[in-house]
Amino acid sequence: MKSPKLLLCSSTVGEIQEVIHPAKLVGAFIVGDYSEEEDGYWVCVEVSEVKEIPEGMVSLVVPKQKYAVITHKGPNHQIRSTYEQLHRWINDHQFERIHRAWHLEISDEWGHDRISDIEVDLYDTIK
């Protein structure tokens, strides 16, 4: 995967310049030990370049990484089971998970009132 440049979106995507896919939601997070600045779940969109950062938002650059990917389709509360399948696949194929790296969740759906059924690609960083 190429190295995306991401902006945290606090209120509206319309304020962000150079958005590549406005409908595509990118969630970014670090699994393992992290600094206070890295703590949390970053709701982002991919941009072609970081120009002006709207007030209340920050930029986040995810470096080029290798991922194992699985698609979760179904209830949001079952996403943990899909992650468990992905982690088993990683172990079975003798890859190593990198916890101190940005992991991604990419979806074509921004949060709707009814979030019981979702479709999201889960990107787990590996060596």
Automatic annotation (TrEMBL):
This is Transcriptional regulator YdeE. Pfam families: Cass2. It comes from Paenibacillus lactis. Residues 15-123 form the Integron-associated effector binding protein domain. Gene3D superfamilies: Regulatory factor, effector binding domain.
